[in-house]
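Support reply, case 0932

Customer input (verbatim):
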Amino acid sequence: MSSGWTVFITVFTLANIAGVTWLLWWMRRRRGEPTGAEVETTGHVWDDDLRELNNPLPRWWLGLFLITVIFGLVYLALYPGLGNFGGLLGWSQIDQYRRQSEQAEAVIARTLAPFESRSVTELVEDPAARHIGRKLYLNNCATCHGSDARGAPGFPNLADDDWLWGGTPEIVYETIANGRTGVMMGWRQVLGDSGVEDVLAYVLSLSGRKVPAGDPALGARKFQELCAACHGQDGRGNPQLGAPNLTDDVWLHGGSVAAIRKTIADGRQGEMPAHLERLGELRVKLLAAYVLGLGTEAGAEARTAAHVGTSR
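Our regenerated output:
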């Protein structure tokens, strides 16, 4: 703030306080005392005979106002409020925020200290670690992946056992720490509309689905020429490239015919931001443990359901 504005704010503020103080002091005088049969009123009359007297404020009320003025002057002397004048105490909201942040970080550090030397694999088995990981997830990841971690179109479901880039503890940690960028180029200009329909028919056939248009046989040949380099000859994907498995029923950008057609024709691009610099190594490990625990639970539930179905 410039010195000119500082002077203006200071003079304007103090002048207003002085004006209010003078008004209160002037109103301390008693007016409206009877002089013979005359009583001073404001001139307002209701119901023919109800008049409003012009009396000063009660002394106790006036005293409260004066105390408020004194409090305001003391506050302006101790704390910022007059332009660039920082107050006699030297307080600032930035310093207070820094101190409170340091105190909070100290408490968090004590809470997280027992997990410092443990690996992601060990943290997955610890309910307390995963509980903290869930809180970190809700604060940092739920906006994209959902509060239940089941994702949305363009954002992977973290509650199943399907991993685009691999599901080992090391890889999941790497994904959270350094982020990922996935690019699927569009093939409309290369394939043409009919070629897109052929590849669409073949891709859907990999997961046992059919569409009325397109030739799966022609689509298979085009797939081997253009798509197999990333998705593999059998369409089962490549975790090193983040290329999804096309033989299951998991679709990152939506599994409807229209959504898959758009993916083939126009391509897709997605980015998972890096979190290591912002959260630190320990918090990233706890996040990885929580996410891995979700996949482990989903896999266990699926295996249990399959076993029950077989036993029946």
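We compared this against your earlier run and they match. Two observations from our side: The chain has two domains: 3-78, 118-311. The longest strand covers residues 41-46. Please reopen the case if you see a mismatch on your end.
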